[in-house]
Amino acid sequence: MDENRLLRKSIITSFRLNGLSIKGDACDYLVSQLGPVTEEERSSWISKVTEFLQKKKSLSDPVVLKSHVVSAVDECCKSEMETADDVFFVIGAFDVPKFNYHHDTKKFIRRIDAKRNVFAEAEHRIKHFSDRYTMIKQRIDRHELLSSRNKSSDEAKLRTIDYLLSCAAENEKVVVFGILAQLQEGKYFLEDPSGILPLNLSQAIYHNGLFAENCLILAEGEFCDGVLCVHGLAMPPPESSKISRTYFGNANTFGGPSEVSLKTSARMMKIEESNEEAMIVFISDIWLDNAKVLDKIRMLLAGYDEYSPLAIVLMGDFLSKPYGNQHSSMFRDKFKELAVIISHYKNLLAETTFIIVPGPTDSPYANILPRPPLPSFLTEEFSKRVPKSIFTTNPCRIQYCTQEIVVFREDILTKMCRNCVHFPESGDVSLHFVKTILSQCYLTPVPLSVCPVYWSEGAALTIYPLPDVLVVADQRSPFNITHKDCVVFNPSSFSLRQFCFTVYVPASKQVEDSQISTD
Questions:
Q1: 262 near 89, Cβ under 8 Å?
Q2: pLDDT at residue 24, rounded to an integer
Q3: How far apart are CA 468 and CA 456, in angstroms?
Q4: Which residue ranges in the chain fall short of pLDDT 50?
Q5: Residue 310's closest CA among 408, 399, 393?
Q6: Strand 403-409 relative to strand 469-473, pairing
Q7: DSSP state of 302
Q8: Could you tell me the CA-to-CA distances from 331 to 313, 338, 377, 470 in Å, in that order?
Q9: Strand partners, 99
Q10: Alpha-carbon 23 to chain mean position
Q11: What is the Cα 243 distance to its own chain's centre?
């Protein structure tokens, strides 16, 4: 009672200071609305309501009735909802923000392209590689072990290629940073913006990672007769998101509706921590033309109908084989059948968002990354039956409260293993892969002939700063590895790997490998 009396007194005083007189029943209503909130929020809401009433043209005299207060509270609530950041948002690859690094300020500044065009000019190919190089190089320049300021006279110095080629520093012990390339059959080179350097890898020791062409690497060795005789090859040291973000300020590097990063939003963090039951289900390789797969999908949906997930991410391929000129009609019919199955589960239909990511063979567009969403002529029936569905690009991004999730459906681990200069002799291949991807801050560090990329849209494949979660859907066995505060997991193939999938719980950052019984 004392608290309500103090709140009533505060409301009356605030209204009088603003030249308004509030009626008793109007004050009672406002007390009932502000009772559950904190003192700081009460003061803020009283100010919003009085400001709204002062601007309201229909208020002809200073006496405020209950109807006026009800209207003011409703309008203020709507305004609050409109300006609030989205809790859950899906970001397509072509909406990912682009940044340029400024050497003078040592900061990343957002770049605004007048017109985005996937069929870019040739100079975008050069910029595609130079942006990757600059992004990692600025990280190396401030690394305590690699910075030349911390090197003693007898230690290998970090040098550029033009320095070695111009000064003829024979037998100097050096470290060179560049991109690994095979410019001649069986001969490897190192490239940086200043030049090209032949490599002799016969005596090289390979550290952790999958060293494929198109990877940015650190090569330590001796420069002799115009060739770098490599003693050791290593990946650039990875960097946690917390450190990287200091060079972006509060800019939103991930994408989405917010102008600033949501990583430090207290409101988003509170929502995230309070919603302990929220989960996102990731399923890859759902062959809709396989009757057994459809039966298992029914079982999965039935199991989640009572406790509906926040979202279910369905990733291709959605057909087990190509059907020639009947492929599109088969795809459309099977997607309609999937929609009919989903529509039987009313809770899922009402509460769960279905996110559809195309696989390598699903889209009728060119097999170039990033892949656009599936075209509407294939998905219109699905969208009608499942209103809470989002057809997005591959890769795509999901912003949930403060958490940033990158989803990529590609057999990239398989392709990196096939294109390795040297396959690791020991250790878990999945761990080598994770360390490589996070060191490169790039989803496809393989030759463009293996994974073609739109030159002007390389930002969509960049993961710098590192996200909270990286989902790499590959047909190899499932794995779950955390490195540099980034959770990387592979849900594997639902159709090929005994109906396995993965569940992620954002509140606890737990990854649960799941499987539907084959009985």
A1: no
A2: 85
A3: 25
A4: 57-58, 81-85
A5: 399
A6: parallel
A7: H
A8: 18, 11, 10, 28
A9: 110
A10: 52
A11: 17
